[in-house]
């Protein structure tokens, strides 16, 4: 390809080298990379995207009308290094005929595994225990000390039995879970595999010992877990969220946790991200917060990077994308 024919691509972050190699080897892109582990400042994003044919972005980049205007009419494809796409203004993107690539399936196992780890860490109070060992709080073996809640014989409720929700359910069942409830927009045939019972949200919240949120963030799920929601949970229940922070009203969660309305919460996602270090949730022993690491295994991130690059290239050439979001 001649220099004039090269397609301009803006990459908003340093990404795993697997994807970069694919983009470089293709020899069809004039690559401009925000070569940092930190997010691209908004002004740099608006500048970097100008005239681009392709945009490779992350979930921390808000791609709205302003960015699309700054890109201009060349922009043919947006490829996000994520399965979640709540950071993309889909209506605006669709209106402009831009194609979108994303990374479903390849991160399902890693995210489900992390969700199970977070659930167990929260329910069995692992961070508290580790802290007590370090600070000298471990005086002897005590029958009533650091007791938590186990999965055996329990009822687990999954909000959003999608790819990740089902993978979580599959992993939790062998721990001796007695009932697996789920809710969503419609019953799922694949729920049979985990003996899943489709129930209204209200039933799930009232009856579950563990409530696991794995739905996508949409206008319907934004703020879904609020005061009303937590007030229906059992006082002994554990709340886990690995979807998006905005599904939870964090002030209401703080009240539920600090008043003993629910037993504990484990969050891999928050609003904002990062959660400020002086945030009230971080003062609570019964709240375990992780820095959005659901998909963070080396191999998963490498494969996500490859898929994101391949989505971008195929989108640019107008061919079938390995994972195109149906708009
Ligand atoms: P899927 O699209 O397969 O699943 C999303 C699920 O959300 C579907 O089952 C859908 O149900 C459900 N849902 C949508 N609206 C509602 C609603 N109003 N009430 C209840 N459920 C609803 O996506 P994935 O499983 O692949 O990913 C899910 C989300 O997980 C992503 O969107 C992302 O936000 C988050 N994620 C977080 C990660 C992390 O690092 N913590 C890693 C990867 C993903 P239905 O089918 O009935 O519409
Ligand atoms: C996603 O892909 O949506 C996650 O939040 C990060 O992997």
From TrEMBL:
Listed GO CC annotations: cytosol
SUPFAM superfamilies (UniProt xref): Formate/glycerate dehydrogenase catalytic domain-like, NAD(P)-binding Rossmann-fold domains
Residues covered by the D-isomer specific 2-hydroxyacid dehydrogenase catalytic domain: 9-324
GO molecular function, one term: NAD binding
Pfam families: 2-Hacid_dh, 2-Hacid_dh_C
Domain of life, source organism: Eukaryota
InterPro entries noted in UniProt: D-isomer_2-hydroxyacid_DH, D-isomer_2_OHA_DH_cat_dom, D-isomer_DH_CS, D-isomer_DH_NAD-bd, NAD(P)-bd_dom_sf
Keyword terms, alphabetized: Oxidoreductase
Limits of the D-isomer specific 2-hydroxyacid dehydrogenase NAD-binding domain: 116-294
Family from the record: Belongs to the D-isomer specific 2-hydroxyacid dehydrogenase family.
UniProt-recorded name of the protein: Glyoxylate reductase/hydroxypyruvate reductase
Provenance organism: Onychostoma macrolepis
Lineage of source species: Eukaryota, Metazoa, Chordata, Craniata, Vertebrata
């Amino acid at each position: 390809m001649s220099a004039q024919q090269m397609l301009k691509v803006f990459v908003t972050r340093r990404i795993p080298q697997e994807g970069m190699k694919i983009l470089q080897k293709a020899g069809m892109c004039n690559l401009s990379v925000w070569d940092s582990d930190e997010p691209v400042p908004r002004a740099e994003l608006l500048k970097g995207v100008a005239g681009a044919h392709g945009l490779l972005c992350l979930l921390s980049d808000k791609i709205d009308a302003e960015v699309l205007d700054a890109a201009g009419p060349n922009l043919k494809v947006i490829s996000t290094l994520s399965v979640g796409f709540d950071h993309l203004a889909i209506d605006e993107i669709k209106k402009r005929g831009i194609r979108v690539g994303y990374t479903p399936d390849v991160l399902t196992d890693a995210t489900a595994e992390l969700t199970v780890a977070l659930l167990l860490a929260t329910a069995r109070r692992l961070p508290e225990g580790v802290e007590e060992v370090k600070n000298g709080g471990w005086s002897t073996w005590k029958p009533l000390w650091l007791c938590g809640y186990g999965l055996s014989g329990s009822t687990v409720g999954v909000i959003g039995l999608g790819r990740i929700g089902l993978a979580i359910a599959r992993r939790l069942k062998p721990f001796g879970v007695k009932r697996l409830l789920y809710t969503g927009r419609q019953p799922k045939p694949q729920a049979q595999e985990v003996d899943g019972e489709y129930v209204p949200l209200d039933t799930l919240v009232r009856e579950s010992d563990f409530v696991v949120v794995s739905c996508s963030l949409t206008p319907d799920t934004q703020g879904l877990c609020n005061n009303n929601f937590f007030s229906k949970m059992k006082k002994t229940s554990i709340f886990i969220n690995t979807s998006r922070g905005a599904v939870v009203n964090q002030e209401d969660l703080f009240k539920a946790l600090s008043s003993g309305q629910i037993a504990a919460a484990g969050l891999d996602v928050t609003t904002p991200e990062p959660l400020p270090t002086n945030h009230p949730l971080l003062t609570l022993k019964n709240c375990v917060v992780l820095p959005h690491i659901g998909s963070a295994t080396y191999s998963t991130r490498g494969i996500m990077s490859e898929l994101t690059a391949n989505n971008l290239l195929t989108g640019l050439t107008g061919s079938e994308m390995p994972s195109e979001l149906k708009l």
